[in-house]
Design brief:
Helix content: 25-40%
Strand content: 15-25%
Largest sheet: 6 strands, mixed
Distance between the termini: 57 Å
CATH topology: Nucleotidyltransferase, domain 5
Number of strands: 11
Order of helices and strands: EEHEEEEHEEEHEHEHH
CATH architecture: 2-Layer Sandwich
Structural class: alpha+beta
């Protein structure tokens, strides 16, 4: 997979996010990564895994905090039955046979949509957000085919669940030839292998130990 930039989507159970790294930056520093910017947040680069879908059931309105805020407004107007709002639906894939294309998900008001639609629209929203961010950074003509995509999945998922996510990503506009699935613990392991290692001196170890003992003694 030849690409000038690699994008990773972490589609989480509770929170989701994305990050990317240009090939040229990675060659100089593997930890030179640009992550999703969350609204004035210095704590996390992720947003809640929830999506608000328009009444037609085929187009996403918003995702994450924006979806939550809009849904609150909708509920205040008592118009929630005219929308579809799904949250924390990822682990529905964690079952013996995985999820099929015929399965449905219930939103917060009990309305149903095909599970494939909910997953693909969520990934589509994140994909468009990423492409818009990259387009604003790259000068000149930007070819979306030059993006390599990585989608993380839990190691406990079976092959059926992984295939479901792959198909959802392709329906969301990510070319299958540019897509790789990565197990979440393996992604974490690769990241940790590139972290700089600092060897503590004897004095630093003694200082850390003394602080630990002091805090331990002060605990009731």
């Amino acid at each position: 997979m030849s690409s000038i930039v690699v994008v990773a989507i972490d589609f989480g159970t509770t929170y989701s996010g994305w990050a990317f790294s240009y090939k040229s930056d990675y060659e100089r520093d593997p930890l030179h990564i640009t992550a999703k910017a969350v609204r004035n947040s210095c704590i996390s680069h992720k947003v809640p895994t929830c999506i608000l879908i328009n009444a037609d059931g085929t187009t996403p309105h918003s995702f994450g905090y924006d979806a939550e805020d809009k849904y609150v407004e909708i509920c205040e107007k008592r118009e929630q039955h005219q929308w579809f709002f799904f949250k924390r639906f990822k682990m529905m894939l964690f079952k013996e046979k995985g999820m099929t294309r015929r399965d449905t998900l219930e939103d917060e008001t009990g309305k149903k949509l095909p599970a494939m639609t909910v997953f693909s629209l969520s990934i589509e929203y994140l994909r468009k957000e990423i492409v818009d961010t990259l387009s604003n950074q790259i000068v000149g003509i930007f070819n979306a085919s030059e993006i390599g995509w990585v989608l993380t999945v839990p190691a406990i998922w079976n092959d059926a669940a992984k295939q479901f996510m792959r198909e959802a990503a392709q329906q969301a506009g990510i070319p299958g030839k540019n897509l790789r699935l990565c197990l979440e613990p393996e992604a974490a392991s690769i990241y940790c292998r590139n972290l700089p290692v600092k060897k503590n001196t004897k004095q630093e170890v003694e200082s850390i130990f003394s602080v630990f003992i002091r805090n331990k003694v002060s605990c009731p």
